[in-house]
Amino acid sequence: MSVRIDVQDDQVLRALARAPQTVHRHLSRGVSRAGQETARAEKEQAPKAHSTLANSIRSQRAGDLGADVAPTVEYAPYVNAGTEGGGWPPIQTLREWIRVKGIQPRNPGYDERDLAYAIASKIHRRGSPPQLFAEGAAEEMRPRVEEILRNSAAAGLREAGLA
Fold first, then answer.
1. What would the DSSP string read from start to end of 17-72?
2. Which of 85, 3, 95 is nearest to 49 (CA)?
3. What is the pTM of this model?
């Protein structure tokens, strides 16, 4: 699960055409920076219990001038997109979440395991709502990514003596 931000900016493309090697080098650095900043924004928007999901979000180079920002935990797509009913979440994971959140059962006859089972049953019947942290971060970061790449292209043109 990763989110893609494509920047088809005329200013950046013209700069790349005018001084390909120099602008490319600057854009490569800009893509790395944009990926890191987007990963930071996605971590801030990711839901947190133990912060395992948020801490798993990484930016990795993808191709020549690209970066993939994505969490590495297997359950991230289910948190991001939500689920339909039918699946059973792990009871132990829910117990840990209950402990971290400090949730107490309303029913005095319930213990932590009973509460975890009740939550799991509800998720099994109804699913879980989406928490669109990846898309939210991508949308939030789009203007910043464009700014970083335009500035990188301009720096490349200045270095090449074309600006």
1. HHSHHHHHHHHHHHHHHHHHHHHHHHHHHS--SSSHHHHT-EEEE-SSS-EEEE--
2. 95
3. 0.84
Rounded Cα distance, 49 and 137, in Å = 19
Structural domain boundaries, residue 123:
83-128
Compute CA distances 126 → 88, 91, 110, whole Å: 11, 16, 22
Query: What does the pLDDT look like over 141-156, one tens digit per residue?
Result: 999 999 999 999 999 9
Q: Is 119 helix (H, G, I), strand (E, B) or coil?
A: helix
CB 94 within 8 A of CB 50: no
Q: Within a domain: residue 78?
A: no
> Cα angle vertex 81, ends 70, 114, to 5°?
110
32 and 88 in one domain? no
